[in-house]
């Protein structure tokens, strides 16, 4: 599939999701099975039980689920990520995969759901942050998708946490080839020099919360962290909806 053209299937899906977002305000139906919910929860009890919450053992550095209670995972032991720490609400699997896909293909209203799910993770795992940044998109990608899902999530979290989202702090200077089929090394190379800090002064000595939908290889989080640290940020805390568990 050519990376720069949205397949028609995705286009129609996006239209459908946008219509659904307008017709069904959040909080009334389960985001997965559409059954009615009454207590303001995102999911009905049955779907909630099946969700892969990242609440077991996790790596204290990258936040990925691990099978045994070790301080850090094997990947972090091999090479420590650039960011200070990363945490996620869910393991990237099960129904979460479809939800994240919908979030990227028109279901903008899921930003509210995901903010509701990630807020407690921030409060439990991080003490504070001076401001929030989201992963910027290049102008071309933004035109293609019509919105930046990372920025939408950051906006919603900003309201919930009472922490400013500095949406203009970072810019993506060039479009990067689709990352899907690249290894971590290739991804890092692909991203090198593609992010730039636009508000350098604001970053000096600050604890910055970087918000994104999924932590996959961590290449994006590393690339963004690298430029934030180059602008003298003190700490970069990463918060994502989901993270890919450690591979054995
Ligand atoms: Zn349900
Ligand atoms: Zn790790």
TrEMBL record:
Which Pfam families does the record match to this protein?
A: DZR_2, Pribosyltran
Superkingdom, natural source: Bacteria
* Domain Double zinc ribbon residue range list: 22-76
Q: Which part of the chain is the Phosphoribosyltransferase domain?
A: 150-246
Name the family: Belongs to the ComF/GntX family.
Full protein name? ComF family protein
Organism encoding this protein: Candidatus Borkfalkia ceftriaxoniphila
